[in-house]
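Notebook B, p. 112. Complex prediction, attempt 2.
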Amino acid sequence: MKTAIITVGKEVLTGKTTNTNLRTIASRLNQIGIDVNRSFVIDDKLEEYHEILDFIDEDLIIFTGGLGPTIDDITRETVINYFGVDTYINQDILKGIKSYFDHINVEMKDTNNKQALFPKKSIILDNKLGTAPGVIFNVNNKTIVLFPGPPHEMLPMLEELIKYLEKVNEIKYFSKGFKLVGTGESTMEKSLTGFYELHPNVNIAPYAGIGEIKYIFTSINKLDLENAMNEFYKLFPKFVFGDLNDTLEGVVVKLLTDKKMIISVVESCTGGMLASSITNVSGSSSVFNESIVTYSNEAKIKYLDIKLDTLNTYGAVSSECALEMSKKLFEKTNSDITVSITGIAGPTGGTKEKPIGLVYFGVTFKGENKTYKKMFNGNRYMIRKRATIFALDLVRKELL
Amino acid sequence: MKTAIITVGKEVLTGKTTNTNLRTIASRLNQIGIDVNRSFVIDDKLEEYHEILDFIDEDLIIFTGGLGPTIDDITRETVINYFGVDTYINQDILKGIKSYFDHINVEMKDTNNKQALFPKKSIILDNKLGTAPGVIFNVNNKTIVLFPGPPHEMLPMLEELIKYLEKVNEIKYFSKGFKLVGTGESTMEKSLTGFYELHPNVNIAPYAGIGEIKYIFTSINKLDLENAMNEFYKLFPKFVFGDLNDTLEGVVVKLLTDKKMIISVVESCTGGMLASSITNVSGSSSVFNESIVTYSNEAKIKYLDIKLDTLNTYGAVSSECALEMSKKLFEKTNSDITVSITGIAGPTGGTKEKPIGLVYFGVTFKGENKTYKKMFNGNRYMIRKRATIFALDLVRKELL
């Protein structure tokens, strides 16, 4: 199934945005054995659509972007008209768009009507996170797919497309994977020397993120897939925290829930990112009651009675302060485990002794206090993000 | 100068890598008034190069990738042969490649010789970070550019290209923009009916994100550009919070810094996201000392003495509770402005009276207490994110 992905948008062509949709769609298609042949980025002009559609000969053609309500958003009508298929206005979708606007208390504009235009024979891809629905239709032995541009709106529709393609495609691919934390891609690749050759029927691909790596395994043979995954897991039991649907914070909240434990955190340089990450998990309210951001020394004293002596002798960014923070937080809250983070996120405030990226952590659990010292790379956001992930992983390892 | 960027590489087509070169090159060209017309990603097969080169009619054609020494790296010879220009082996470059291999203590292969192949009339782009030099050459009134794929090798060559283009180009384009909050794309478009026609020499394009919209203005006439932007600003002074380089939290931190004011926040459903967002701004430590996440009712009572009566009569998600939270936080901290957030982020916990997405805000500033009620759409993350943006915008408006 030769595939072309066409991204519509000035924002990509002017370099205001990175084309992440291409990567997302291509890697997901890859998992079910579909190769992307070519990819295009075009401007939202009628003639650009026509030129590309005249040019390409792929069997599966996926557009992203240009489904919105503005006059610039012409993907839906242009592509549908190009193929000359019969259309209709879907009243259910129209109602859905109306109720979306009611729900957010905004008046619906006439221009939104065109978002309910569909080929007569088509599969509608619901948009629960915006007003622009997607669509799949078949014409001239080709499958045409229209996705909205915003990644969070596109993502659920991509899963619908995968289901559809798995149905029409005869070979079924199996795809699973692991998520890992606490290791890096080059370290992993070194450890995996020779591993790929032992599993020739399984496609194994790493995808590195900030502080996290995914390994995705794909095969048409379920047994081969499971073998490869078992062998892989045996190599890295400490680093694997879950499968592709897991999030590190989700795993931590589940561990806490299973053990009926309460967590509290106190943050300095991450400024609420750890608390925010835990509370982004639905159901976190049963394991999380309270947390504090003690950004200034005064706040550290006010909320946790951190000794002035500790702050003066060792400084706020120190193992001693991190230890005292998690210990005092444990004493002052009804928690089973407490974590503290204090560090230098930059871009200013670094010194020779305490450079940017230096972060101390404290963990208090089962009467024990532990501290950790780490150096993180990257800009302010990345240092904060990596510190948050490291703290979550500390909790995960303590609870296991 | 119509421009096409062609990325060569299976890595991008399988979703292993994000095509960051496109963004880097496009945004840099944009700064000197050159629009990228279209962009392509192709596999490194001879026929793929030929098909694309037959198809495109752009004046400036930039390839990235496929300049390395392996048999898969065929960009250089394929593109040069396609245009049928005379070539030669550059002995200086060949020597350079040899000494690079000496330097890294690796034996040079014959296949590396091809990296010294150039059109007779061409500008060689030195590669100080790898073995593959780039090249600029002109043929049939077109400018052809070949860059290596690795971003750090490509970057210095891009600057050489920019210098070259600035010399040959005569027209200069200008590009600026606004970021807006508190409005939606369709509402904006309705308000802008007729506006685009009044500014025919300015390209004006909206880009919507979660809770935020950008409008980017581009023109060859600086005065036209400034006129359009001034008129635009007059229409939406309340919504515009900054230019394209600004972030909402950055603007808020700057306003607080300028007014020498301290902010504290208390969060329930956003669970630290607002604090984390403020503290992601470098320099926020001068306006931010402390904050709390009071997720449970007990924490609301413990940290802020929220009246049991308020919680029992109105519930934690209520205007009354939001009001009491920001008021008590103001009393208990040495802050000039306090903000509270309490709501239902879902996906569970919604009721008919208090559905998912319902969020209350409290603001205490200059002796006044205000509350706000909002309904947000989307999943848990988006509701939290939108609540965070709304709270930041409340602070911005109070401070203005």
